[in-house]
Design goal:
- With 433 residues, this protein is α/β, with parallel strands linked by helices.
- The protein folds into three domains: 4-133 and 302-322, Rossmann fold (3-Layer(aba) Sandwich); 146-298, 2-Layer Sandwich (Dihydrodipicolinate Reductase, domain 2); 343-430, Alpha-Beta Plaits.
- Helix content is 36%, strand content 27%.
- It has helices at 14-25, 27-34, 48-51, 64-67, 85-94, 104-120, 137-144, 159-171, 175-184, 193-196, 199-213, 232-240, 302-322, 360-369, 399-410, and strands at residues 4-10, 37-44, 58-60, 72-77, 98-101, 125-126, 150-156, 222-224, 243-254, 257-268, 280-287, 291-298, 345-346, 348-355, 375-382, 387-394, 397-398, 415-423.
- The strands form three sheets. Strands 7, 8, 9, 10, 11, 12, 14, 15, 16 and 18 form a ten-stranded mixed beta sheet that branches. Strands 3-2-1-4-5-6 form a six-stranded parallel beta sheet, with helices on both faces.
- The protein binds NADPH dihydro-nicotinamide-adenine-dinucleotide phosphate, ligand LTNE7NMQ and sodium ion (NA).
- InterPro entries: ACT-like_dom_sf, ACT_dom, Asp/hSer_DH_NAD-bd, HDH, HDH_cat, HDH_CS, NAD(P)-bd_dom_sf.
- It catalyses: L-homoserine + NADP(+) = L-aspartate 4-semialdehyde + NADPH + H(+).
- L-homoserine binds at residue 189.
- Pathway: Amino-acid biosynthesis; L-threonine biosynthesis; L-threonine from L-aspartate: step 3/5; Amino-acid biosynthesis; L-methionine biosynthesis via de novo pathway; L-homoserine from L-aspartate: step 3/3.
């Protein structure tokens, strides 16, 4: 008879319920692949009554029941937030229990510390579900692409905002209506602020950068914007100009330095990321040898996310069988150096309201010319009796110069900046996809 590996699960919400389902439905395959039978022994929840009809596994509100149980070998943390999740994981690792988590907030902010404690205690710590839900992107970076030098990781890594932008673009629905739908479908975080303000995506870029470049890109160094400022007007105008607006996270290596951003970005309609819709995610990875690769799939939701969690459980089980636990997700480390702002190239979409009087346009062009920034496209439309709406797509230039020109624009009372988004400009835009 096969030996049993017992799991203690912390949280039985969207992802936790999915883990329960997959372990039950796919148990025959999992047992063949690992050589063990695996099952959940106890689940930690806040309110037992809420879950009594959902499952016949043992429910508890006392984490000690799980952490002190010598028969529990692996902890799955799918409760979210930093505390008490961090404390529970640390306690589990120190007691020799392996940990699988979907918690990107925790891994982005405290991943290095947790990895160190896992190593010291010869325990596994895996977190594939923390980035791009059901897409096996972290394993692809640390295993399949281990031979290459990764130059750039760019993608749609937040399902909620991609779902919202897709519905706003295709169905003309309001921001509030689409957010409520994403929450009802279980993609959005309990508090969706981090989703819509780009913070969730920025945290995922921290994790991706750590594994792709071996560098610790600090969250504070990622220029981060969300989708609150994206209006139906921007989506329509971008479309007329040949672009699709997506919330993009990007991190790029440049001569041994790294820089990252998260924000709404105009992508050429023919770019593969432009066709990634709804809650799907995609990560576009450029390696110096492999060239361009794209990993696509569901970025959130019960079963896709749980698939990644259970795959991590399978890896832990295999490691237990081969006595190789505690080896870590990746050994790759490189000194972290941030790219100087003057070395970062950018290109912007700007929407502004401008006093409709002779000379204001000239002031605008002079302002940008003074910073060596040219305009690629300009549209001007009447806005109201006294002002015009102006849309500009700049040429590519130094981010520092662009930001200085924009600071000048913002200090001029004749011009009010309403939106500023990045525009993708690189060789791939000219490729024939
Ligand atoms: N939803 C998704 O699509 C994805 C989520 N993730 C991540 O997975 C994790 C879980 O997300 P999700 O399943 O959506 O979250 P939910 O809010 O749906 O579920 C959270 C679960 O944790 C329990 N819980 C929370 N806090 C405590 C606490 N202090 N003590 C005991 N139990 C607690 C809740 O108990 P109760 O039910 O009693 O309230 C609930 O069962 C998060 O880190 C999230 O960021 C990652 C990728 C995708
Ligand atoms: N709220 C997140 C869930 C997955 O990480 C998202 O929408 O992507
Ligand atoms: Na993943």
């Amino acid at each position: 008879m096969k030996k049993r590996l017992n799991i203690g699960i912390l949280g039985l919400g969207t992802v936790g319920s999915g883990v329960l389902h997959i372990l039950k439905e796919h148990q025959e395959k999992i047992s063949q692949v690992t050589g063990y039978t695996m099952g959940i022994k106890t689940a930690l929840v806040r309110q037992i009554e809420k879950h009594q009809n959902q499952t016949d596994i043992h429910l508890t509100t006392d984490v000690e029941t799980i952490l002190k149980d010598p028969e529990i070998h692996i902890i799955v943390e799918v409760m979210g937030s930093i505390e008490p999740a961090k404390d529970y994981i640390l306690q589990a690792l120190k007691q020799g229990k392996h940990v699988v988590t979907a918690n990107k907030d925790l891994i982005a902010l405290h991943g290095n510390e947790l990895t160190q404690v896992a190593k010291e205690n010869h325990c596994d710590l895996y977190y594939e579900a923390s980035v791009a839900g059901g897409i096996p992107i972290l394993r692809a970076l640390v295993d399949s692409l281990a031979a290459d030098n990764i130059k750039k990781v760019m993608g749609i890594v937040n399902g909620t905002t991609n779902f919202m932008l897709t519905k706003m673009a295709k169905n003309g629905l309001s921001y509030e209506a689409v957010l409520a739908e994403a929450q009802a479908l279980g993609f959005a975080e309990a508090d969706p602020t981090n989703d819509v303000d780009g913070i969730d995506a920025a945290r995922k870029m921290v994790i991706l950068s750590r594994l792709a470049f071996g560098m610790n890109l600090p969250l504070s160094a990622i220029s981060t914007g969300g989708i609150r400022s994206v209006t139906a007007t921007d989506i329509q105008i971008a479309h007329q100009l040949g672009y699709t607006i997506k919330l993009i996270g990007a991190a790029e290596e440049q001569n041994g330095t790294i820089h990252g951003m998260v924000g709404p970005m105009l992508l050429p309609n023919e770019h593969p990321l432009s066709g990634v819709n709804n809650e799907n995610n995609a990560v576009f990875v450029t390696g110096s040898s492999v060239g361009e690769t794209m990993f696509y799939g569901p970025g959130a939701g019960e079963l896709p996310t749980a698939t990644s969690v259970v795959s991590d459980l399978i890896t832990v089980a295999k490691n237990i069988r081969m006595h190789t636990t505690g080896d870590g997700f990746s050994h790759y480390q490189h000194e972290t150096k941030l790219t100087a702002k003057e070395d970062i190239q950018a290109k912007y979409y700007l929407r502004l309201n401008m006093t409709d009087q002779t000379g204001t346009f000239l002031k605008l062009t002079q302002l940008f010319a003074a910073h060596q920034i040219g305009f690629e496209q300009i549209i001007q439309q009447p806005f109201d009796q006294n002002s015009a709406m102006v849309i500009i797509i700049t040429h590519q230039g130094s981010k520092e110069q662009l930001d200085q020109a924009i600071a000048g624009l913002e200090s001029d009372s004749d011009m009010v900046l309403k939106a500023r988004f990045d525009v993708l400009e690189e060789s791939i835009c000219t490729k024939d996809y």
